[in-house]
Design a protein that fits this description.
heterodimer, A: 315 residues, mainly alpha, MetI-like fold, B: 652 residues, alpha/beta, eight-stranded mixed sheet, seven-stranded mixed sheet, 21 helices
């Protein structure tokens, strides 16, 4: 396992380096340069030149690249261009919020979808398809609803009309109840599509495993249906489900940007939107690398989980 | 409650068992009123072809049928309890504890993500009320008994770390470890090589006998039945058509189906000039209700009564019953032999010319930078015109690689291949080798299209001729593969192979996926083609009886080498290489008298890994007579001699 983890870790570092390189050079591909794009028509030639120097754009490309690498490695992330706030500080404030939303969504959707999918599969296996059909039908309807739309509807009903959940206001970590209320709706919105997908994946995986010979073997040994389901069927079905949970994290990160915007939550998503609006290249660039880093770490974790679940996995 | 039931000897009693499958196209009655009983310690074989209901019947006994299967009616009395009426909880106390089960496919029957220890120990703890350490000792003991080396260490292995034979041993250990009274074995050796099959059968037989357990053994292999069973139940279309002691069933079969089945197996006395007796037609479609006797359309003894009234089992002797309205079934006057059993037309005259020659052929596969699989190691072979060369050996011996090299599907690492004319192929699984969206006519014409032979009209003409040549009528040209039975599909595969007028046809296990009653039809077809057209065949199979019947010469392969070569009859009658001997010994012969006389010491061990081959004789690690000479020096074969050749220092 340790050897496997080391190898995966090395692969992960290479991926991160690749992402950083890609982000850096893609941003350099825009016509003109970052400074002129930022300034638009507002700055004259001399002022623009000063901005370039300030951003380090006058240095040779590779010097800029290695400087960027060094900055990231030493967490010297610079300041925002307009308000002169250290970017590291902004990220440190926003990241826990976004991660709470994302992880909360994963936990909630796994807790709902796996029992639901398993039950549907089990009943279908026994020839009772109604739950299976209901689940597939509902999942399809949920999939048809875009998350920005469900977000708005839930906001209208539960925050504005019923007033159950606050729609705005500060997030104060010393008041966990308040944070929970504030983050509940975004998590629910994101969980809807996650549950729809994961429940279907679980259902298919479990149904397939229930038809495997080793499940019949377990039954032939006299194990109860519950034990067959949990010890054999779920354990084997967990393999594809774990993969999908890991992969769906990427979608989820994209989803947080939308819900944070709609529910005005000061997370990474809103920070990114602010950065784009103020054409703050340093901030956007750093956030993209951060998103990539989170994604790669989650993939790493998925690989480890997969290895732990399936002894057959080699490198 | 002082009353004690009298000692009963019947362990399992099945009465009027009916098993149904609800399918979109109607109810299939897979098992239709089956009754039989198994005495304590008795081994009963259930024989039948696919679709005969033998597995559904066995699974019904434990109510292990998967939906949409359902135990519709009947009684299953095991040790006095009626299984059909037990609650799920009571049933779980029977499964594993009173009845142990061994399934067909060892590769998929063990949980892939669980260690053997976990899969074995917990049932023992539950069923025998032992603590974890005691249960572990018990599991290790059983693993040792079934012949797993280093059981203390191997018990911690995952299934994927074991070979198929080893996994089946684990299954047997699992089934026996809870000391069941009855073991149900559903085709336990079908997925294994003959030598491994012989080992597994021996283990099952000895250990159940030792434990005093009875066994219900489901198989389609009549040879295994003869080796193994005390009693036999022959099933056809969901019913038992004959039941009796193994000696009676083989010596005095009373039902025409049993008689035909026994007749279709190539026997040692049979002349090659004679065609195999074959059962015409196909088993009935079980989705439709069967009126009268299900076998009547394929039966030479059928008469009016058979069409209206299904026959019931009636006494034919002590412990022997058959379900047939005709007293003795088929007799000499109503024989099952085809009318022209000897071929009357003039045979093709071989002129001794060489069609295929393999010279010092080597093939290595580089699996990774470090490991190389040595699949074929210096093979020299010749096939003459109009001759059939049989290649036999365990899986992994390189026989299929030789076939692929011959067809140019692989490039040899070294050595050369000479083919006069064209080589074509017939595969094991005809359904997998056809495009399901193509009509039969297009499938057969495909080689002609690929090579742009002839205009459309000429090709249509050729397809009609080829379809006729393999014994199908022209209506098949418009059909799709899924509308054909396995045997018909294999005929189409042969027709396609013949399309380009090949000089040699390579047939890799062409009859292995077919049922016994259909197998003879395909063997006859291939033999007829050789007889009439003078096509040479390379016939690769693990079915030694078939190879013996169809081949003129035989090459026995072991670890990528030919270890014995010679005329088929000579090799079988007098095998000289210890491996050939072991291989022939491992094959069960469908005759209980012969089987009871044979020694039951199967070849030990498994095929060594082709990754690192031994320096000396490849077979030395398993050979009963190997010496230091064998381990040091490799025996060789002379090249391209027609006479008998044996690669053994001690060949007699």
């Amino acid at each position: 396992m340790a050897e496997y983890a080391t190898k995966k870790l090395a692969q992960m570092l290479i991926t991160v380096l690749g992402v950083i390189t890609l982000v850096f050079f893609t941003l350099r591909l825009i016509p003109g340069d970052a400074a002129s794009a930022m300034a638009g028509d507002t700055l004259s030639g001399e002022a623009l030149q000063r901005l370039r120097e300030q951003m380090g754009l006058d240095e040779p490309l590779f010097a800029q690249y290695f400087g960027f690498l060094l900055d990231i490695a030493t967490l010297n992330l610079g300041e925002t261009i307009t308000t002169r706030v250290p970017i590291a500080e902004l990220i440190l404030r926003a990241m826990p919020i976004t991660l709470t939303i994302a992880l909360g969504t994963i936990v909630l959707s796994v807790l709902i979808s796996i029992p639901l999918g398993t039950l549907a599969a089990y009943m279908a296996h026994k020839g009772k398809r109604w739950l299976d059909n209901a689940l597939t039908g509902t999942a399809m309807v949920v999939d048809l609803m875009p998350s920005f739309w469900t977000a708005l509807v839930l906001l209208l009903i539960f925050s504005l009309a019923l007033g159950w959940f606050p729609a705005s206001g500060q997030l104060n970590w010393s008041n966990p109840g308040g944070v929970a209320l504030r983050l509940a709706l975004p998590i629910i919105v994101l969980s809807l599509s996650q549950v729809a997908m994961l429940a279907r994946i679980t259902r298919t995986a479990v149904l397939e495993v229930l038809n495997e010979d080793y499940v019949r073997t377990a039954r032939s040994l006299g194990w109860s249906e519950l034990r067959v389901l949990f010890r054999h069927a779920l354990k084997n079905a967990a393999l594809p489900v774990a993969t999908i949970v890991g992969l769906s994290f990427g979608n989820l990160l994209g989803g947080t940007v939308i819900v944070e915007f709609i529910f005005t939550i000061p997370g990474l998503g809103n920070l990114l939107i602010a950065g784009i609006n103020s054409r703050d290249y340093q901030l956007v660039q750093t956030l993209i690398v951060l998103y990539a880093l989170i994604f790669v770490v989650i993939n790493f974790a998925t690989d480890l989980v997969y290895k732990a679940l399936d002894p057959r996995v080699q490198f | 409650m002082n009353y004690q039931a009298p000692v009963r000897t019947t362990l399992l009693e099945v009465r009027d068992l009916r098993t149904e499958f609800q399918t979109p196209s109607g109810t299939v009655t897979a098992v239709d009123g089956v009754s039989f009983s198994v005495e304590r310690g008795e081994r009963v074989a259930v024989v039948g072809e696919s679709g005969s209901g033998k597995s559904a019947m066995a699974m019904s006994i434990l109510r292990l049928l998967a939906w949409p299967g359902r135990l519709a009616a009947g009684e299953v009395r095991l040790d006095g309890r009626d299984i059909a009426r037990l609650s799920e909880g009571q049933l779980n106390a029977v499964r594993g504890r009173l009845v142990g089960t061994v399934f067909q496919d060892p590769m998929s029957s063990l949980d892939p993500v669980m260690r053997i220890s976990k899969q074995m120990i917990e049932p023992i703890m539950r069923n025998l009320k032992l603590n974890r350490q005691e249960a572990r000792d018990e599991a290790v003991k059983w693993l040792g008994k079934v012949g797993i080396p280093e059981p203390e260490r191997r018990i911690e292995a995952f299934p994927f770390e074991m070979s198929g034979g080893m996994r089946q041993r684990v299954m047997i250990a699992m089934a026996l470890s809870c000391q069941p009274r009855l073991v149900i074995a559903d085709e336990p050796t079908t997925a294994l090589d003959v030598t491994i099959q012989a080992q597994i059968v021996e283990v099952l037989k000895n250990l159940t006998a030792e434990a005093g357990a009875a066994m219900l053994f489901i198989t389609h292999d009549l040879g295994l039945v003869a080796r193994f069973a005390h009693k036999v139940a022959v099933m056809y279309a969901g019913r038992i058509v004959e039941f009796g002691r193994v000696e009676d069933i083989f010596a005095r079969p009373a039902h025409p189906y049993t008689q035909s089945l026994l007749g279709t197996i190539p026997s040692t006395e049979m002349l090659k000039s004679e065609r195999l007796p074959q059962i015409p037609g196909l088993p009935p479609d079980m989705r439709k209700p069967i009126v009268g006797c299900a076998f009547r359309e394929r039966c030479g003894a059928a008469h009016d009564r058979c069409a209206v009234e299904p026959p019931v089992l009636s006494e034919r002797g002590p412990d022997h019953s058959a379900a047939c309205w005709t007293d003795k079934g088929l007799t000499d006057s109503i024989s099952l032999k085809p009318k022209s059993s000897a071929r009357t037309n003039k045979p093709f005259e071989p002129d001794g010319s060489v069609v295929v020659e393999l010279n010092a052929l080597w093939k290595q596969f580089n699996v990774s930078r470090k490991t190389t699989v040595r699949a074929v190691n210096g093979v020299n072979l010749r096939v003459h015109k109009g001759e059939t060369l049989g290649i036999v050996g365990e899986s992994g011996c390189g026989k299929s690689t030789v076939a692929r090299l011959l067809l140019g599907l692989e490039k040899p690492t070294s050595g050369d291949i000479f083919i006069s004319g064209l080589a074509q192929m017939v595969f094991q699984d005809p359904s997998a080798s056809f495009n399901p969206k193509m009509r039969i006519g297009d499938i057969v014409a495909e080689p002609l299209v690929v090579k742009s032979r002839g205009a459309k009209l000429e090709r249509d003409e050729a397809v009609r001729r080829l379809i006729g040549q393999v014994g199908l009528d022209a209506s098949f040209i418009e059909r799709y593969p899924h509308q054909l039975s396995g045997g018909q599909r294999q005929r189409v595969a042969v027709a396609r192979a013949l399309a380009l007028n090949p000089s040699v046809v390579v047939a890799d296990e062409p009859t292995s996926a077919l049922d016994v009653s259909v197998r003879a039809q395909i063997i006859n077809l291939l033999a007829d083609l050789k007889h009439d057209l003078g096509i040479s065949f390379v016939f690769i199979s693990h079915d030694l009886l078939t190879v013996r019947y169809i081949s003129d010469r035989i090459a026995v392969m072991y670890l990528g080498e030919v270890v014995e070569y010679g005329a088929a009859e000579e090799v079988f009658a007098d095998p000289r290489h210890p491996y050939t001997k072991a291989l022939i010994d491992a094959v069960p012969v469908p005759d209980p008298v012969i089987e009871s006389r044979r020694s039951s010491v199967p070849l030990e061990g498994e095929l060594p890994s082709p990754l690192n081959l031994p320096r000396g004789c490849a077979f030395a690690s398993r050979c009963p007579i190997a010496t230091d000479l064998c381990r040091a020096e490799k025996p060789t074969l002379p090249t391209h001699e027609l006479s008998r050749q044996v690669a053994c220092h001690y060949a007699v």
